[in-house]
Amino acid sequence: MSEPRSLEIHCFGPPTARVDGQPAAAPVLWHKHLALLVYLALSPERSRSRSHLLGLLWPERPHSLARQSLNGAVRRLRTELGRTRLRSEGENLTLAGEALDVDALRFEALLERRPADAAACLTGDFLEGFALDDAGAFEEWADRERERYRMRGAAAWTAAGEAALAAAQPAKAVEAATRALTLQFHAEPAVQLLMRALALANDTAGALAAFRRFETALLDIGARPSRDLVALAERIGQQPGRRAPTARTEPRMPLVGRHRVHREAFTAVAEALAQGPRALLLSGDPGAGKTRLLNECCERLQLGGAVVSTVRPLESDRDTPWSTLRSLIRGLLRGPGSAATDPGALTVLAALAPAGHDHAEVTAALGSLLRAVADEQPVGVGIHDAHLMDDASLEALGAALTDSPGARICAIVTSPNVLDQMPRSLLWLRREIGRRIPGVAVTLDPLTEAETRELVLSQSAWCLHDEARDRLARRIYFETRGSPFLIVTLLRALANASALREEALAWPPPGGTTDSPLPISVPNLARRAISTWVAELDAESRSVLQAASIGPPMIDLDLIATLTGLPRARIEDSLASLERRRFVACDGERFAIIAPLVADVVANEWLVPGERRNLRARAIEALASRTDLESLRFRAKLRALNDVRRDRPA
Questions:
Q1: What is the CA radius of gyration of the chain?
Q2: CB-based contacts of 646: which residues, under 8 Å, 6+ apart?
Q3: N or C: which end of the chain has fewer CB within 10 A?
C-alpha cells in the first residue's frame, strides 16, 4: 500500500485511533504502538531519532532487543496504516502529515483564533488512563503534557466564556468558567469570569459563594486571592442597584439575539477598561432596548472597578449650554482620583454657566478631570437620550476623549435612530467614532421572529404545552413586530394575570391563519397588559406612580410629596419598589417612568378626568414659586392641558 490511509489520533480522554473513519485494528492500539504514534504526532515536525525513541519507549531492554521492538512496531503500523505513513529518513523516523488529524494539534491551532472550538476538543484529560509501566521517560513526558493541556485548556474555556459574556450569554460563560476551574482549580481568570457572569445574571449570592470557595481552596495550599479578585468581590457585594430579590421583584428579562451588537458593545467596554478611551453610540427606535443595553454596559464598567456617572437630559437641556456636563461632573467628582485634578480646571468646571465660557477652556478642564480620575480607576460616562443634551456638553466630551489617549474612559450615549432628530453635536460624534474617537456605533433593530420566540419560550413557564408556547410566540411577534419593550410588557402581564392568557392563546381564530385580523390592536393589548401590571401594585406605590404620570419626565420628589401628601422617605421607598417592578428607572441620581406608554396608561386609565385636572391644578400651584427654566416650562404645559375644555385620553 503506497499511500497512507487517513489516520485520526485522539489524545484527549482515553487515547485511541481511527483509520479511514473506522476504529483502528488491534495492532495500532497496542500501548507501545499507540504511544509511538502519539509521541511522533506531537514532536517537532512529527520526527524523532530512533535512538531517542528507544530510550523513551524501551529503556530497560538491551539496545539490540529494543531496536528489534521498534522495527517490529514500525513494520506492523505500516501494514495497517500504509507504508508511507511512517517514513525512515536516515536515523530519524517521521510520521507523515498527509490525511492526519490529531485532536491535540487541532486544539493548538484553534486556541488563539477560536477558543470555543479549541475548548470543544477537550473531551477529557490528555492520555486519560493510559500508562506504560516500563517506560518512565514516556510517563514523565505524558504527565508534563497533561498538566500543560490542563493549563491551556483552562485558558481556552476562560476565553470562550469571555466571548460568551461579550455576546450577552452569561449562562454559557458560567458553564465555561466552571469547566476551566475543573481543569485548574486555582485559575484566577476563570473564577473572575465566573463571578462576573453570575453577577451579570443577577446572582450576587452565587458570585460571592464562588469567591469564598476559591478563597478556601487557595488557603488549603497556603495561598490567597489577589487584591484585584478581592476588590471584585467587594464591588459585587456593594454594587448599587443590586438589591436582594423579594417576592415582589420582577425578574430581569434575559438579553436574547443581537449577538453582534452585544459583542461589539461589550467588547468596547472591555477595551476601555484595559486599553484606553472608547465611545459607544447606541441608537434605535423607542422601546428597542437602548436604556437596558446602556445599563448593562454600566454594570460591566462597575464590575471592572470604574467610577460611573450617568445622566438623563431633559428637553429643556438642549438649549442650555453645559447643563448635561454639570450633571456628569457631579458623578465624576465621586472618584478618588478627582483630587489630583488641576485646581484651575476644577475652578472652570465648578463655575460652568449657560454663557461666558470658552469651549476650548472647558474641554481642557474636562479632559484634566477625566484623566485624573482615570489614573486612579477607570471612568464610565452614560448619557441617556443624548439627542436632548446641549451641543456644548457633547462636543466637550468628544474632544476630551480625543485628547486623552491611553486613559481608561468609556462614554456611552443613546439616541433615536433618526438622523433629523440628532443635533449637530451628535451627528459629529457619530461621524467621528471609529475615526478620531476610538469606539463603535451600533443600531438596535427589532428582534427577529426567532429571537422573539427565544425570549417568549424562556418566559412563558405558565404555558404547559409546546404547541401553546409556539402559538404564543407567533402571536407576540405578529403584534409587536419585535419591539423589546412591547414583548417584555406583554410577557410580564401574562405571567401575572391569568385573565389575559386565554385571549392571548386564542389565535389564530378557528378557520383563520396567522394573517387573520386580531381581536385586539397592538397598542390596546399593550395598554391592557400595562394596566394589569399596575393593578398588582400596593395603594401607596400606585399613588406615587399616578402623581408621577402627570409630572415632568424626571420625577420631582418634592412635587410628588405635595401631590400625594407622603413624606419623602416613603416616596423614596415607593420608587425603589416601582424600580424593582420595572415601572421606573434610575440614572444614578433621578428616577423616571420607564417609558412614555407606561405614563400614558397610568394617567389615562388609572386617573379619571377630574383627578387628572385636580393633580395638574395642584402641581401648577406648587410650581408657582419656582423660577428655574424647567419648572417654568412644565408649569406652562400643565396650564395648557387644563385649559382644554374636554380632557380626552391620549
A1: 32
A2: none
A3: C
* Residue 419 in grid coordinates: 438622523
Give the mean model confidence (pLDDT) for residues 159-185. Answer: 93
* Of 493, 485, 482, 483, nearest in space to 459 by CA: 493
Of all residues in the chain, the percent with pLDDT exceeding 70 is: 91
Sign (positive/negative) of CA torsion 105, 107, 108, 109? positive
- Hunting for cell 500508562 — which residue is that? 131
Q: Does the pLDDT at position 265 exceed 90?
A: yes
202: three-class secondary structure by DSSP: coil
How many other β-carbons are positioned within 10 Å of the β-carbon of residue 496?
Answer: 16
Alpha-carbon distance of 311 to 87, in angstroms, equals 70
528: closest CA among 543, 518, 541, 516?
A: 518
**Closest by CA position to 273, among listed 167, 407, 429:** 407
Q: What φ, ψ does residue 136 adopt, rounded to 5°?
A: -60, -35
Q: Is the peptide bond before 240 cis (omega within 30 degrees of 0)?
A: no
Query: Phi, psi at residue 417, to the nearest 5°?
Result: -90, 50
Mean pLDDT over 306-318 rounds to: 86
Q: Per residue in 178-237, pLDDT tens?
A: 999 999 999 999 999 999 999 998 899 999 999 999 999 999 999 999 999 999 999 998
Residue 443 CB coordination number (10 Å): 14
Beginning with the edge strand found earlier in the chain, give each strand of the sheet holding 409-416 in spatial order: 307-311, 379-383, 409-416, 278-284, 439-444
Contact yes or no for 460/474 (Cβ under 8 A)? no
pLDDT band at 582 (very low <50, low <70, confident <90, very high): confident
Q: In this structure, are residues 440 and 264 in contact, taking their beta carbons and an 8 Å threshold?
A: yes
β-strands 100-102, 7-10 pairing: parallel
Distance in angstroms (rounded) separating the CA atoms of residues 497 and 503: 11
282, β-bridge pairs: 414, 442
Q: Which amino acid is at 328?
A: L
- Of the candidates 458, 20, 526, 489, which has an alpha carbon nearest to the alpha carbon of residue 257? 458
Cell (9 digits) for 221? 495550599
Instruction: Give the N- to C-terminal CA distance of the chain in Å, as an integer.
Output: 85
Give the Cβ contact number of residue 4 at 10 Å.
Answer: 21
